Amino acid sequence: MIFNTRSGNFYRYDRYTHQIEPIAAPAISKGGRVDVCEEKLQALSFEPIPNITTLPNISTFIIEITRQCNLRCSYCCYSGKYPRNRVHENKSISATQFPLIFDFIEKHRVKDRQLTISFYGGEPLLHKELLYTAVESIKERFPSDAEIVISTNLLNFDVHNDLDWCVKNNITLNVSIDGPEDIHDKHRTNLNGKGSFQKVMYNLSSIKQKNDIYFSSNLNLLVTVSELSCLLPIARFWESNEVVCTKEPFSISGISNNFEANTQNNEDELLNTLYELMDYYEHHRHNLFIKSYLEILTSPIIDRPIFDLEESSSALCCLPYNPRCFIDATGQVGICEKTCDELRIGNLHNGFDFEKINQVTVQMAEIKKTRCSTCWMQRFCQLCFTNYFLSDEELLQDCEYQKMWTRISLIIACEMAERNLYD
User: N or C: which terminus of the chain carries fewer CB neighbours within 10 A?
Assistant: First the structure.
């Protein structure tokens, strides 16, 4: 695949070697920009699909402690806009289920890695007594090696009482903040449509003032970027706000693909937005939001393993090597928290259903064999079980979306290297 940066340098990405090499300007370039050039590639062969009898790498267990939430975020996967996902409801795990949950974790965790148990919702802090019971049980069952994480919008957090409990139990908080008030409150509103920014920032500020060490080491900030045009306003907010300016975001993500919305993206417009962000970053190298965003965007390029592609390639997605497991509020088990509610691979009582696991693995592998064998992007492809129920048309749309973002990531990674923007 041939592409060029804004400075006029041309590169070729080679699927077989995974190398990116500079080349002379090709004849197909027009006006300083190369027309998308995807070379015809020899079809790959794929390795036989193994019979899966174990999931040997699971070290993180995400527990859906409740399906209740005190926000109605417009982009939430449980908003009712996403096919095959549940909606918010008055259902939570019972404390009587915890022994069964922790038996399941003990049986299926990989023993030589850090164990992480993460509480997810809904909003977990709507059920503090359940959390207190769960954390006490974890401390008894896994006294030496369990990291405990709570994903929260922080609205129900009592700084005077809850912070001491979090510190005592060494709990990590994953807190969502989407930027300045107008951007955050556009999507993250309560049941009455009122924005949540002021309450979240008040609690973040209070935590930082009361225990700056905890704020620095045990609190992660998660940002959802609803539109790329929001990047620069979020970046300016991040460097000017005294609460978050010294803290690098733990996660920056876009909105999940919603094929009913059928949103379109213009690649040139997206690239121009990212070039503006890089221009700003050149003069604001201390901006931790931009640093984190650009690293996340280009990490598949920068961190790719360099080796020649063998004659046959794996057609597997994440199974059976996935490190995560999702336990929902009904006791059903999913591959991870991102797969839809209709795709479950077991339950707490009977364990993993390997007949089902092998069935869905083969079905996803067939998609990969059919669609990916001659694709230039095959080694960057992120086809996963979130795509399991997609139609052929939706798979094609997702494929084109991934190709576009891979091209963008290649261009931005090379542009950053040319400008010496990597630390």
Answer: C
